Amino acid sequence: MFKQAISRAATRGRSVRLSSSIATTQSSSSPAPQSPNLPSTWSTSQRPRPTANDGPRFEQTSVEYQPNALSAMELISREPIRLVKGRKAVCDGGGGALGHPKIFINLDKPGPKPCGYCGLRFEQAPHHGHDH
């Protein structure tokens, strides 16, 4: 019956397109990590890595061969806290054209304070006396 439908469509001058659905299975049962140094998503609007590249644009793209960038949030959390002598810290993101606008961070309250642009953390150095 299937062959008859194909031959009828071919005699009428219509194009016949046959598609086969082949189920692909992943080699591992656990999902791929979001990045090598952070296994989960870090934003509510972010799609997990295995499903982020779905659709016709990525149908012949193998995820295993794509670059797997490191999470910037995890990398910046590994940076040591910079101790500052004084009540304010100045951050310009490394200076020059590759940095960000210079900002001043108030360090009056205890604990590390992050830069709003680059995430570097600053803390007031502990002082035991008055340096006059």
TrEMBL record:
<dbReference type="InterPro" id="IPR019401">
    <property type="entry name" value="Znf_CHCC"/>
</dbReference>
<feature type="domain" description="Zinc finger CHCC-type">
    <location>
        <begin position="86"/>
        <end position="122"/>
    </location>
</feature>
<dbReference type="GO" id="GO:0005739">
    <property type="term" value="C:mitochondrion"/>
</dbReference>
<feature type="region of interest" description="Disordered">
    <location>
        <begin position="1"/>
        <end position="62"/>
    </location>
</feature>
<protein>
    <recommendedName>
        <fullName>Zinc finger CHCC-type domain-containing protein</fullName>
    </recommendedName>
</protein>
<dbReference type="GO" id="GO:0006120">
    <property type="term" value="P:mitochondrial electron transport, NADH to ubiquinone"/>
</dbReference>
<feature type="compositionally biased region" description="Low complexity">
    <location>
        <begin position="18"/>
        <end position="40"/>
    </location>
</feature>
<dbReference type="Pfam" id="PF10276">
    <property type="entry name" value="zf-CHCC"/>
</dbReference>
